[in-house]
Batch of 4 targets.
Target 1
Amino acid sequence: MDAPTKQPEVFESPTTRQLSNRLGAASPENADGRRIRGRQRDISWALIALTVPMMLLSYFILFLVFHYRVNPHQFVTPNLAFNTTHKDSGVIYLDFSATIFITLASWSSTLAPLLVGFIVTLISYPVARSILHAAESGDTAELLTPYELSLVLRILASSGLGSLWQWLSYTLRWGRKREKRSKALKTMTTTLALGLLLSFLVLLTDSWLHFATETVLINLTTLRNPDTPPSYSFALTPACATLGNDCIFNHSEYTPTQDALDDTSKTTRIKTHTDDLDSETYTYLGPPQDPGLNSLDYTARSFAVKTSCTLLEDRCPRSVMKLNDGTDAWSCLDLLISLEDMYNPLYQMFFYTNSSMTQNSTVGTLDSNPFYFALLVHVFTVFMVLEPGNCSTSVYDLEYTSVDNRITRFTPTISNLSVSNMIKRSSQFQQFATVANFQAITTAMIPPYSYPIIDHTAQTFNLTALSLSFSRIFLAMAIQSFKPVPVIEYQVREPHLVARVPIAPLSAHLIANMLFVALGLVLAVKAARALHHDVGELQARLGIPALVAALFEDRAWRPVAHIEDMFDERHGIVGVRVDFGPQAEGGWGFGAAMGEGGTLLGSESELGSTRGRGEEESG
């Protein structure tokens, strides 16, 4: 038969018995019913401290993001979209100072280490419940050892890395010497480590956000004076609604035409554009040079012409040419005689209604679009279009888009006969166009023009330059038929210094902040559930003030409403003074002196014996 297992003897010192008796005597059921109050309020304040600041900071950061966020890819219309170097999708842009933004965001990293103490405060209630349960159930293995109690008190007093390091040293360096760690200490240190980890996470994400956020220069689009858009489009004047002669060139008001040819007009500029789709070069009416165009994007309607010419014959007298109705045979001598009789002996110009040059065109007739003309030059060279015929000019209704002073969309549509004939008829008033035509021809000559031309066989022409010159002349001659009108759409590009904030560090920082909030809510619920019966009393006494009072104050063993009530000084009574010095055993310890300048009572052990006797006498 096995011998009964011998239970380990538990040493109970006189001090232990004294503490047990006093704890029993101090129970609210055995006293006047007073107990330490305000525990619910402390839990509420700890919860508010953990959640409200972090939530307010996070919400404020989100407010800045949504209120000041700008989109560098946002345009008034898709037609006005422009290329931007800021195409990364993982960032947001704020029309806000980057320095101020990261400073505001860094407040949470400053606040996070200060909030760890409130985390420890909340977990102290479940810890106190664990200690009380172990004491009531007699589970001494789950009670705190004196050194573990010192660690718990240190964590409660200073919730920092030093306290955690002290616990690690106790765990690792003491090794087998230490007793089994109690559940209360494990809970306390684990929660402290979690709080410090979250604090470090907030600091880490804040540093990431700080280094990733930068100030960049981007173009933002806006509508400036939307009720008065710029007048860069062109439309026909009211007089051009009919085919009356008052719509075409007016000799008495030739200044607009001359200004257009000289590029000095304040309302119009004749420009050229080579289309990327068909590689054709068009001449069109556009706005004059203006510094405001550097920051203005717009879509406008206008008019354009395109002239094409090629050589019909090389030089006389190698062949005979048929012009006009095709029945008259013109020799080189006939051409020379007719040119010498002209006002301008350099060239002669003929307009036709068809590409085969068989039907003459006269002022007032409704011809075709394109219209045709032949050019006879003193060097006996004739020009024509690529197809069989002569020079060809097409007139277009134009819609184009200018972005960043570049044409990004160019859509010509063949004009109706009214517009085409208006431009052609204006050009048929040769008296004013003579000088312009003369300049166009001589400029296109290769080698450059000199009069008289001696070597006819060596003379040729730059057909591209000649075609563009006549396109300019046709538009300039008809300039009085057009007027500036508002554009279809427009936007103003304004450079802005904005904060470029990557989404990843910003999201990580906000998540770290909200983890503090979540932890606070969880711990507050656990603390509220643990707060019953004497848990609040034990939690309040689980601190350095209560421990000091237990050493030096008789009131520490009495029921009180507040921790401060344990001290005689709180009640205006002259109490002991704490002394520290060598003891009879050879070490150092605390002692107490009665009153101001009173006698030294002795060491802490002697003080306890004196108190015991005093209480017995009072009892």
Target 2
Amino acid sequence: MSPQYQKLISLLKELFQTDQAELDFGMYRIINQRRDEINCFLEEKLLPQIKDAFST
């Protein structure tokens, strides 16, 4: 992974606050319940979609 992509992932994780278990209200409750899915998307599925979007 490129440093820019790693920075993007880091910023998105910070934005979604997936590491903040104490936030348990509203949308954060949903994010906490789907944390594994969000991390899987950010770390595995996002890069191919980015490459595909920029290749066309």
Target 3
Amino acid sequence: MPSLPKTHAQPEEVQAGKLTGPAAD
């Protein structure tokens, strides 16, 4: 899992199931 800024999850990431949206702290 790449180090992405925990400000807001990208739509692609959410659809991929990698993150859980903005709450992916």
Target 4
Amino acid sequence: MTRTLLGRCGGLVASLFALTQVGCYVAPGNVATHYVKSVPVERDKGAVISITADESPELAGTQLVIEPGALAADQTITVEIGLEDIVPGDLHAAGPVAVFGPPGITFSKPARLTMPYAIPAGDDAATLVIHVSEEDGRAWTIPHDRLTVEGNRVSFRVDGFTRFQPGSSNGQPIQDGGGCQIDADCPAGQMCASGMCEAPHNDGGFCTNNAQCPMGEWCLHRVCQPSTVDAGVDGGVDAGAGCTSDADCGFLGHCDPATATCQWNTVDGGLDGGPAPCFTDTDCAPGQLCLNGVCQGSNPDAGVDGGIVDAGQSCMSDNDCPQFQICDPATATCQWNTVDGGPDGGPGGCFTDTDCAPGQLCLNGVCQWSNPDAGVDGGVMDAGQSCTSDNDCPPFQFCNPLTATCEGAIDAGPGPCLADSDCAPGEMCLNGVCQANAPDGGQDGGGGFLSCVIGTPCPGGLTCINGICQ
């Protein structure tokens, strides 16, 4: 089990760490910590900061992922280990205390922190939470349903630097003075702030989402704060600013067409009518997908493709349409693809052939029927199209120089091949398709052409052109 860290520098602590190798001091907020490492991080590059067993046996496996652009400026990040537990009395320490600095650092894009943990004997693994403690005395817990647990590691999102420690309980409810871990522990209309239930504040008080703050403010570290050019997740645009499109409002904001002003998005897409910010589909409501960081409803006839551009826009080719849409030549408008090719009659978006209906192949990210006269070759153009060379024709077809059209239909003759030996007697392998040999003194006296290699002589005074004797 992960060792519980008690006491300050000296005494028991001295027996836990080799203090001659790294320093130990009492950090601001009167919490003893043990220095582990410092890592310079460039704003535009981000960083992955990992702790090895040599650097700290207790924090080994800890990893902090900072996205490019998440920091306001280049910054040297410090990592320390706390030497006394920070979990409240109703929780048991289930891992070390990780202390990141400098204090007060915030991210415009959430970072992801992974820490080691070990559930104490007698505790319920389903009670695992992360307790967070700020230097100004504020504290709260990240509930279990917001954690990703893999083996003996737990991962979660963070929006700034503070102290973190895994904690667990034996399943008993919180008893310490009506405290709370999450909002669901509180009566209706109240929220959990600093471990206590209280009403939301719009005057610089505690908050759980931007909608609880006045317009022009956003919720950072559970406190309503003015939105500024570097305030983080709003992309530098104040809520309430004038706009003509969502692009004017920055990440996690949208343009309200009724007021032509930027409005905050909300996680459930409800309080302000805007779509919800997200990182994966699981952050969105059922039936929605996470696209470009915003929860979007899939088009009524779009199945699971999650397209974000309305079908019906004019087009001349598929290239004029968004991903997972096609240009309907009958109407010259973009139409949604569907995996089963059903509701809109268009081919389905796909990644492999298994994403498509039986008899279809995945070509260029779209389910396509194999050519009607080409069997299973996956051709996308009808045999008979005009051509000047084999390059103008689909796979397993060739350009007939006598008709200037693509030929080589598998179901109109023999099957596909790699060599003449793959074909029936009297046939040759040409462009991957078995073809009848020619009546040029060849083997069968039939009506086809004799295959050849360019630069080699053909019988009967014929010349090798495009792989056939003519």
